[in-house]
Specification:
It is a single chain. The protein is of the alpha/beta class. It is globular and about 45 Å long. The strands form three sheets. A three-stranded parallel sheet has the order 1-4-7, covered by helices on one side. Strands 2-3 form a two-stranded antiparallel sheet. It has a two-stranded antiparallel sheet with strand order 5-6. The two termini are 30 Å apart. Helix content is 32%, strand content 13%. It contains eight helices and seven strands.
Length: 221
Protein backbone atom coordinates (compact mmCIF):
# COMPACT_ATOMS: atom_id res chain seq x y z
CA UNK A 1 0.00 0.00 0.00
CA UNK A 2 1.04 3.60 -0.53
CA UNK A 3 0.53 6.18 2.21
CA UNK A 4 1.41 9.83 2.66
CA UNK A 5 3.64 10.74 5.56
CA UNK A 6 1.65 11.71 8.65
CA UNK A 7 2.23 13.32 12.04
CA UNK A 8 0.69 11.13 14.78
CA UNK A 9 -1.36 9.31 12.11
CA UNK A 10 -5.07 8.55 12.55
CA UNK A 11 -6.34 5.13 13.54
CA UNK A 12 -7.46 4.30 9.99
CA UNK A 13 -3.85 4.74 8.81
CA UNK A 14 -2.68 2.05 11.21
CA UNK A 15 -5.75 -0.10 10.59
CA UNK A 16 -4.72 -0.41 6.95
CA UNK A 17 -1.13 -1.23 7.89
CA UNK A 18 -2.33 -3.83 10.39
CA UNK A 19 -4.62 -5.37 7.77
CA UNK A 20 -1.63 -6.62 5.81
CA UNK A 21 0.17 -7.94 8.88
CA UNK A 22 -0.19 -11.66 9.58
CA UNK A 23 0.62 -13.08 12.98
CA UNK A 24 0.16 -16.76 13.69
CA UNK A 25 1.91 -19.42 15.78
CA UNK A 26 3.78 -20.51 12.66
CA UNK A 27 4.50 -17.27 10.86
CA UNK A 28 4.96 -13.52 11.17
CA UNK A 29 4.34 -11.82 7.86
CA UNK A 30 4.94 -8.07 7.97
CA UNK A 31 2.82 -5.60 6.11
CA UNK A 32 4.57 -3.93 3.15
CA UNK A 33 4.12 -0.18 3.38
CA UNK A 34 5.35 2.49 1.00
CA UNK A 35 5.53 6.09 2.22
CA UNK A 36 5.30 8.78 -0.44
CA UNK A 37 8.65 10.57 -0.43
CA UNK A 38 8.47 12.49 -3.71
CA UNK A 39 5.25 14.46 -3.60
CA UNK A 40 4.89 18.21 -3.21
CA UNK A 41 3.81 19.21 0.29
CA UNK A 42 0.05 19.53 0.79
CA UNK A 43 -1.51 21.84 3.36
CA UNK A 44 -4.32 21.01 5.78
CA UNK A 45 -3.64 17.28 5.78
CA UNK A 46 -2.42 14.71 8.28
CA UNK A 47 1.11 15.41 7.08
CA UNK A 48 1.53 17.98 9.84
CA UNK A 49 -1.51 17.64 12.12
CA UNK A 50 -3.43 15.21 14.27
CA UNK A 51 -6.68 14.92 16.24
CA UNK A 52 -6.92 13.82 19.85
CA UNK A 53 -9.52 13.54 22.61
CA UNK A 54 -9.31 16.32 25.19
CA UNK A 55 -11.60 17.22 28.08
CA UNK A 56 -13.62 19.51 25.82
CA UNK A 57 -13.86 17.02 22.97
CA UNK A 58 -11.86 16.64 19.77
CA UNK A 59 -8.86 18.95 19.51
CA UNK A 60 -6.24 19.34 16.80
CA UNK A 61 -2.53 20.10 16.94
CA UNK A 62 -0.60 21.34 13.91
CA UNK A 63 3.14 21.45 13.36
CA UNK A 64 4.19 24.88 12.04
CA UNK A 65 6.49 24.67 9.07
CA UNK A 66 8.92 27.11 7.52
CA UNK A 67 7.48 28.69 4.39
CA UNK A 68 10.43 29.11 2.07
CA UNK A 69 8.69 31.33 -0.46
CA UNK A 70 5.55 29.22 -0.21
CA UNK A 71 5.17 25.46 0.14
CA UNK A 72 3.26 24.77 -3.07
CA UNK A 73 6.43 23.71 -4.90
CA UNK A 74 8.54 22.20 -2.11
CA UNK A 75 9.09 18.42 -2.04
CA UNK A 76 7.76 16.80 1.11
CA UNK A 77 11.19 15.64 2.23
CA UNK A 78 12.50 19.23 2.15
CA UNK A 79 9.79 20.73 4.37
CA UNK A 80 11.35 22.07 7.57
CA UNK A 81 9.70 22.26 10.98
CA UNK A 82 9.56 25.69 12.57
CA UNK A 83 11.06 24.83 15.94
CA UNK A 84 11.38 28.52 16.80
CA UNK A 85 7.62 28.76 17.09
CA UNK A 86 6.53 28.02 20.64
CA UNK A 87 4.34 25.05 19.77
CA UNK A 88 6.21 22.05 21.18
CA UNK A 89 5.59 22.88 24.85
CA UNK A 90 1.91 23.52 24.11
CA UNK A 91 1.70 20.24 22.21
CA UNK A 92 3.23 18.17 24.99
CA UNK A 93 1.12 19.89 27.62
CA UNK A 94 -2.04 19.27 25.61
CA UNK A 95 -1.20 15.58 25.22
CA UNK A 96 -0.40 15.28 28.92
CA UNK A 97 -3.59 17.01 29.97
CA UNK A 98 -5.66 14.78 27.71
CA UNK A 99 -4.07 11.43 28.54
CA UNK A 100 -2.32 11.58 31.90
CA UNK A 101 -5.16 9.62 33.49
CA UNK A 102 -5.22 6.98 30.75
CA UNK A 103 -3.99 3.51 31.66
CA UNK A 104 -0.77 3.48 29.63
CA UNK A 105 0.31 7.11 29.26
CA UNK A 106 3.14 6.77 31.78
CA UNK A 107 4.51 3.72 29.95
CA UNK A 108 5.00 5.53 26.64
CA UNK A 109 5.20 9.27 27.26
CA UNK A 110 8.96 9.61 27.90
CA UNK A 111 10.02 7.81 24.75
CA UNK A 112 7.42 9.59 22.64
CA UNK A 113 8.27 13.04 23.97
CA UNK A 114 11.98 12.29 23.47
CA UNK A 115 11.29 12.01 19.75
CA UNK A 116 9.64 15.42 19.73
CA UNK A 117 12.35 16.91 21.93
CA UNK A 118 15.05 15.70 19.51
CA UNK A 119 13.69 18.30 17.05
CA UNK A 120 14.54 16.81 13.65
CA UNK A 121 15.00 19.56 11.08
CA UNK A 122 12.69 18.01 8.47
CA UNK A 123 9.01 17.18 8.96
CA UNK A 124 9.39 13.96 7.00
CA UNK A 125 12.14 12.72 9.32
CA UNK A 126 10.08 13.59 12.39
CA UNK A 127 7.09 11.74 10.99
CA UNK A 128 9.14 8.65 10.18
CA UNK A 129 10.45 8.49 13.74
CA UNK A 130 6.91 8.79 15.08
CA UNK A 131 5.65 6.14 12.67
CA UNK A 132 8.37 3.75 13.78
CA UNK A 133 7.53 4.40 17.44
CA UNK A 134 3.84 3.61 17.04
CA UNK A 135 4.46 0.55 14.89
CA UNK A 136 6.71 -0.91 17.56
CA UNK A 137 4.46 -0.01 20.49
CA UNK A 138 1.27 -1.30 18.87
CA UNK A 139 3.05 -4.50 17.85
CA UNK A 140 2.49 -4.17 14.11
CA UNK A 141 5.23 -5.77 12.02
CA UNK A 142 5.71 -3.69 8.88
CA UNK A 143 8.37 -3.34 6.23
CA UNK A 144 8.40 0.39 5.54
CA UNK A 145 9.91 1.73 2.33
CA UNK A 146 10.09 5.23 0.88
CA UNK A 147 9.25 5.92 -2.76
CA UNK A 148 12.00 7.28 -4.98
CA UNK A 149 9.81 8.82 -7.67
CA UNK A 150 6.32 10.26 -7.80
CA UNK A 151 3.46 8.32 -9.39
CA UNK A 152 0.04 9.78 -10.30
CA UNK A 153 -2.76 9.40 -7.76
CA UNK A 154 -4.66 6.17 -8.28
CA UNK A 155 -1.62 4.30 -9.53
CA UNK A 156 -1.38 0.67 -8.41
CA UNK A 157 2.40 0.54 -8.65
CA UNK A 158 2.74 0.22 -4.88
CA UNK A 159 -0.53 -1.55 -4.25
CA UNK A 160 -3.54 0.28 -2.82
CA UNK A 161 -3.05 4.05 -3.13
CA UNK A 162 -4.29 5.76 0.04
CA UNK A 163 -2.42 9.06 -0.32
CA UNK A 164 -5.53 11.03 -1.23
CA UNK A 165 -7.97 8.83 0.68
CA UNK A 166 -6.85 9.25 4.29
CA UNK A 167 -7.41 12.96 4.80
CA UNK A 168 -8.96 15.00 7.65
CA UNK A 169 -11.40 16.69 5.27
CA UNK A 170 -12.43 13.65 3.23
CA UNK A 171 -14.77 10.86 4.23
CA UNK A 172 -13.87 7.24 3.62
CA UNK A 173 -15.16 3.92 4.88
CA UNK A 174 -11.92 2.22 5.85
CA UNK A 175 -12.90 1.61 9.47
CA UNK A 176 -16.38 0.43 8.52
CA UNK A 177 -14.99 -2.09 6.02
CA UNK A 178 -12.56 -3.38 8.63
CA UNK A 179 -15.26 -3.47 11.34
CA UNK A 180 -13.25 -1.02 13.43
CA UNK A 181 -15.90 1.54 14.28
CA UNK A 182 -16.30 -0.36 17.54
CA UNK A 183 -15.56 1.53 20.77
CA UNK A 184 -12.62 1.07 23.07
CA UNK A 185 -12.04 2.78 26.41
CA UNK A 186 -11.55 6.55 26.21
CA UNK A 187 -10.93 8.83 29.18
CA UNK A 188 -13.70 11.33 28.40
CA UNK A 189 -16.21 8.95 26.81
CA UNK A 190 -18.69 9.40 29.66
CA UNK A 191 -18.73 13.11 28.91
CA UNK A 192 -18.72 13.20 25.11
CA UNK A 193 -19.23 9.59 24.03
CA UNK A 194 -16.89 7.42 21.97
CA UNK A 195 -15.03 9.26 19.21
CA UNK A 196 -13.60 7.23 16.37
CA UNK A 197 -10.52 7.69 14.18
CA UNK A 198 -8.42 9.91 16.40
CA UNK A 199 -4.63 9.71 16.40
CA UNK A 200 -3.26 6.21 16.99
CA UNK A 201 -1.93 7.72 20.21
CA UNK A 202 -5.46 7.67 21.62
CA UNK A 203 -5.72 3.91 21.16
CA UNK A 204 -2.23 3.20 22.45
CA UNK A 205 -2.52 5.31 25.61
CA UNK A 206 -5.88 3.77 26.45
CA UNK A 207 -5.38 0.15 25.38
CA UNK A 208 -1.61 -0.36 25.50
CA UNK A 209 -0.58 -3.91 24.49
CA UNK A 210 -4.19 -4.68 23.53
CA UNK A 211 -3.95 -2.15 20.68
CA UNK A 212 -2.90 -4.86 18.22
CA UNK A 213 -5.84 -7.03 19.29
CA UNK A 214 -8.18 -4.14 18.56
CA UNK A 215 -6.56 -3.32 15.19
CA UNK A 216 -6.67 -6.91 14.04
CA UNK A 217 -10.28 -7.09 15.19
CA UNK A 218 -9.47 -10.20 17.21
CA UNK A 219 -11.40 -11.64 20.11
CA UNK A 220 -9.91 -10.60 23.44
CA UNK A 221 -9.01 -13.38 25.83
Amino acid sequence: MLLSTAFFPPLEYFAKIAEGFTLSPDEVKPSLVWIEGCEIYQKQSYRNRFKFYAENGVQMVSVPIIHDGGTHSIPIRDIRVDWDANWLIRCERAITSAYESSAYFDYYKDELFAILDSKPEKLFDLNMKILDFFLKKTGIAAEVRITEEFTPFGSDRYGEDLRDVIHPKKQNYILERLSLKKPYFQVFAQKHGFISNLSIMDLLFNEGPDSITYLKNAIRK
